[in-house]
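Troubleshooting: if your tokenizer reports a length mismatch, compare your output against this known-good record of 122 residues.
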Amino acid sequence: MTSRSEKFELFQKSVLDHLTKVNNKLDRLCALSVSNQLLQECVGPDGSGRTAEECADIVVESFMAGICLTDELDNRTREFDYQKSEFFIDQEVEDEDEENEEEDDDENTNNSNAPRRPVNAF
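Known-good structure output:
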């Protein structure tokens, strides 16, 4: 029988092995993607061949544009999450009030068999 620490170490090793395999596959995908782009960019729109430096510049520019777009998407997602949290802040309070009212209603229904007393009207 293995102890908890040994089980945890085995788990850590299996996770690390899995992450290593995934990273290797991601590296291959990135290499194939860049190779494909380089092949596409080797020929200009007019059909003439481009130099290696021109192809490299195009690939670098497209990579940097992708990074900028990703950063912009992250910023807008954070802004949206912030605005959403600000917009729905009152709803959370209303939800809590509704839950309290439901609890009060439950309490009132449980006391429906309580003796009724006459109301003094002056």
